[in-house]
Queue: 2 jobs
Job 1
Amino acid sequence: MADLVPYEGRAALGPQGEPWGPRVPYAEGYPEPPTESVGLKEYLAIVRRQIWVVLAIVAAAVAISLYVVLTAPPRYRAVSVVRLADARRAMTGSLEAGAYDQVLGRETDVLLSQIQVLMSRQVAGDAVDQAGLRLMPVADKPYVKEVTDVVVAADAVRDTLTMTFGTANFTASVRGSEAVAGTYGQPVTVGGVQLTVSQKPSVGQTSFFVASRDEAMGSLLESFNARPRPKTDIIDLEFVANDPTFAQKVANTMALTFKLHNTANAQQQSRRRRLFLEEQMKQTDAMLQTAMNNYSGFLSRRQVFSSREKATAQEQGIVNVEIRRAELDAQRRTYRNLLEQARRSSDAGGLRALVSAPGIAANPVIQQLYEQLTGYERARDSLVTAGAARTNPDVIGLNSLIDATSTNLLSAVRNQATALDASIAALDNLKSQSTAQIAAAPSTATEEAQLAQQVAAVQKMAENLQTEHQRAKMAEAVEAGQVEIVDLADIPTFPIAAGRTRKVALGLVIGLLLGVGAAVLIDGMNTSIKRRDDIQRVMQIPGLAVIPRLMETTGQGRIARALPRLRSNGNGTRRSRADGLVTIHDARSSGAEAYRTLRTNLIFSQAVQALRTLVVTSASPGEGKTTTAANLAVSFAQQGMRVLIVDCDLRRSRLHKVFSVPREPGLTDVIIGQVEQDAVIRETSVPGLSVLSSGQLPPNPSELLGGQRMQKVLASLSEAFDLILLDTPPLLAASDGAILATLADGVVIVVKAGATEQEAAQQAMQQLTAVGARVVGAVLNDPESKLESYGGYYKYEYAAES
């Protein structure tokens, strides 16, 4: 039977004599465990192991979400409605082009452009100034709508204004100043704020915050939004606030301010056109007066009152040429004046006036450039409204395109003015030709005709300017723009939906993510050996067996196995036996089967020489080496071998308790020669199994175990037994295990799942390698069922049920 436990010396060699390396084959008849990869199953196992961490983080996240949801103040939305209509053009009788006639693309573009104007800081600043919105409501304080006609001075400091309302009067005060008394309906001034309380409010006291102008504008634009209704020219103006009355006031103020701003812009454009036409009329009147004076003076000097009949046709042609030349000359001067104004103007108004001038609007090249310019401006305004800074690369690029397009547009207009010069030169040539044709006519008649032509041409141009001027005056007088108010906002009755369920659900999801992340992090910090694969990876030795949790049954076999973690000292349930001989008390259990598997792997290893002496040790205390050694000894004895288990732990001996034998006399007594070995070897209840207890605990166990006498004792015992198992102290706790490993034929290391650190296992292997010991393999002890939590694989299903 001893030949069934062979080995090949003490060198750590494989079956073919090669050194034990990263790939270590397992014993014959023992299948290698399946390779495991980290996936969803592994993460679920991590969550199961760290379930309390995950639950704690999830509970904290949900609690925070509930607190935020329950303590958040209600929010109210007020909505006013405006319409982008062409009411101004209708009121002026089509005397002035409206927004829809400008080269701005589709109607949707007009709506979006107006929304950008509405969301601008200029409109917000006008609203703040007109409605006194620098006086903002304080949280948890009611907003009193009876406070009207608010005017905040530019130098008013940021402060809190407190108001107390009595029966006949009220008081208002700011921090650090005396209260100012006021009468209902009469204005009062306190701290740079002038206001009027129209009547006694329903509340006794309230407070306002006096904000700076920039703060008020920022707060307004942050909670304000403009939404166009699809396929309509309707815009909804929304404002959200904690107080419904304040929300209504701001929504209505923005609608009214936007309407006034649009009207003022339209009137300003009409005024600029009127002023331009008046300047042109002055120049034309002077030209007409000069032409008439020249004609009258000629008639007076020459006493000529009519032209000859034969030159009538030629003269009429020259008149037409002069008229056309005068028109072209007037257009040229108009273009040059518009070009000069556009060059001096810092906004796009000058370009729009230039493009809308007669003659230029019909030029397709100019119109195309203007469409490109307006498109670039819309794109830039959209980026700025979306929050892009002026230094944004896209904004800078659009500014460059706008500048280049503006330059090209002005160049195109200049080219058209140059073309007018060519046309005028052509007319001059035509006039010279016509004049040459009637050269034979009397010089008096010719000069008379020329002067008459000049008067007619300038007079016609003056009449046209007079008509345009009258239209501009009428358009300027119209107090309307392209914006009309459809509905003003009412005081909202119900707060807007806060999405509490969604927020709590979001908190739950975030908590789960954080909890799983924390679980993975904590689990990753655990550097202990958790699986059977870790033994080969860290220690580079084969895993011989996995010892599951040891149980002792007392009458509830199948139910008890279904509850492996149940602990009880009562009858009818399982109880943990960390030091129990499961191979004796519960031979059909999975634990006993695991020890038999360990025995089989040792018996059928493919080494050459016999394995007669085996050291069972561990890296650290409490890893189950004594229990493993005792049950392994029982398993070998049950195989029919003569087995002796020796307690070599001369510091903390335990084998005498496991087998219920006396500790003294024992091994130490045999070594020092006080007793004979036959007198201290005690048989157990297991046939073929004997025990040699530690004996008295000496002061120098390392010297005692490493001496010549210990070698002689082992040699003598080997002759009497087929297998000797040595239970030694932990390798990192004492040097006894390493010393005995040099005397034994092989070493089995016991590793506790989830407890033995990888570094400790490596240090233990280094100690054994340093002394030349041969490590047969390792046993993964799992008394706390850690392996199941870490996704390890072991299962002994063939054990019979009790």
Note: The chain has a mean pLDDT of 75.
Job 2
Amino acid sequence: MLFVLGAALALSAAMQAGQNPRRDKPSVVRDSTMADSTKYRAPRRLPVTADDQRTAFHDERARELLLHARVARLAQDSSLRSYDSRVRERLTARFAIGSHGPERIMYRQENAYRVQWQEGLGARVEMTGARVGIPMAPPDAQREALEQSLIDGGMTSVPYAPGQDAMGIGIGPAKAEVDDRTIVQPLAVGAEAYYTYATGDSMSWTLPDGKRVRLRELEIRPRTPQWNLAVGSLWFDVESGQLVRAAYRLAVPIDLWARVKERQKELRTGLDYPWWAKAIVSPLKFEVSAIAIEYGLFDGRYWLPRTRSFQGIQQVSFAHIPIALEQAFSYDKINGPISVAAIALNAPDIGPLDEVPDSLSGDAAEKWRDSVWLKRLRTRHTFSDSLHKAACDSTGQRVLARKRQEMSVAVTYPCDLDKLAKSAEFETSLYDPNEQVFGTKERDALINDALPLGAQALIRLGALPRPSFQYGLSMTRYNRIEGFSTGILTEQQLGAGYSASLTTRIGFADREPNVELSLARSSSAKSVSLTGYNRLVSASDWGNPLSFGSSVSALLFGRDEGFYYRASGAELAWSSQRFASLDWRLFGEQQRTAVQRTNYSFGPEFMPNIVAATGASFGGGVRWLRSTGDDPRGFRTLSDIRVEAAGGDSSYGRAAGDLTLSTGLPMKLAAALTLAGGASVGQVPAQRRWFLGGAQTIRGESPDTAQSGNAFWMSRLELAHDRSAYRLIVFGDLGWAGDRSKISDLVRPMSSAGVGLSMMDGLIRFDVARGFYPRQQTRISAYLNARF
């Protein structure tokens, strides 16, 4: 839950940090209607020039559609007086380490509730079901998280209120003019300075009463690649100008360190973070990868939301945190005979943080902000404590009423939270996909159509954002070739989805520069890149020996379990992350031995590195990763398939696959089985053989060149006592690697057995393993990203 809150707070802070796109340093227009600078700052926007007006619209129909929609979004529909609706809502936060690490559910909350809204009075929300799953934490933490969520206001949403921003997820009001401190609304006045517009497809259908509904698509493209500009597709009702469908994302990821720095400058505070904090948590980014909204026509007149979804991913150093919010709405009565009782507020109206008065700056401004924050925190804590102690009403219910965007909202829920968790609203498991409830297939189809790889911001080389830099822990590693190695990654957004990056790295032991220069084009789900490089490559098929976690094990315990070689050349790579991880690459490179330069560690000496075959190699490879099942105590699969072929001084082909099956068992037991195998054709060089032994394969045996070959098979069986937050495990491993002509021979395989401790669903793993063959030895391992 802390990661979820951290991601939300970071995103909120970034959205308040607004960056003004630089276009030859134009003047900035400020709205003078809000003169009280102690509470507000006037909206900031670029002026719409004659050139902007000329280039904003690809066709005249796009201009007409935008102007019609601009008027409609601010129109108050006085005929909508009330509605009675049902809502299902689900928030999911996952956690992964590394680009290919398995994504584990860290937090999931699902709510079901009834919303009765009446004009002038507000909304009453009746919770009918709520449940929380935190697989990485003890069971008690789930109840505490649910209770705290309800006290803080709950994960509840009012479907619609007249005047709200139809492109938003909540009930925030539609602002008339652009303010580029936050997300620049493409329909607001002044947006022509930031976007271009073009009409796309159209559709129509006839209602039972004979009325014909016609929709028209408006494609929006940012003029520059900025974090606060959206790219996507909007569909409008041609007659009314109302938004009916939307699918969009932010043009580029949000660099949160840059946003914090700009926010500090805007607030005129001298507070800054120390360099070592940025080194530890770098990069710190948030990518809004897709927002999809579908409206339905009710009573032949009112466009009300049916589904809304948000997908994003936060990167914190080498960790990735994908976040998804899904909402589904249905309506029983519109302008029907419902009566919402007057709402008496009993929760503090904290509201947004006021801007610093213009008369204050530096330490004085920071002191002023601290005093405001402290006062608000005391108010919130006092209310939270009182609510914990407050008695329930005669029906066993508790009511929490507060202001939301000037609307009074009262949330009612039972004091006995078990009633919510065991509600009849939930017919399936919390970890079930529930595709029909949330309209997953329709949402994904809308996103795929609206956000292809070509849907990008325009290229404007004279108005580019500042480059971003990545350094610190995520760029630091230790191994027996380079010793201590660190570097810096510089990335520049170019527009149209293109970015250029330069990675430079030096090892203190071998002192050989590692350089990678890349040109890439990416969207939220796909990327294509062309890279020239001189790099150190891991020959291992399992784990990531060049990661920071493996480096810690190498330095502290002498466990550098990778085999390495050097490669200089170029590659063309493509990857997709929409439903599964699919990567392919075409390469041409010169390969050679990576000479071992150090034996220093706090543990034993390192094992020798391989002697690679020197020569030119050109070819291609494909890797497909897929996982199914979200419930750690349910049935899950994790598959990894790899195919590679190359010619040159050595011509070969190799293919391998790993499959891990895991499931819960009675009496709080769980089991996992891993099966893997691979074979090859041609002359496989030493650096492309399979190496068994180590924490990721045969845990009781050391990896070395004697346990390698151009073919292999492996199996691992694990039985665990599952205590939610951790598992106590006994396991056994068998495997063989050698010449492919002997893969079917009855030879004695490598073998080991042991006990382990898996925490946070395998994110952290400790093993004590005893090897039986070929070496009788005991190995203690600590590592990340275990299969089970």
Note: The radius of gyration is 29 Å.
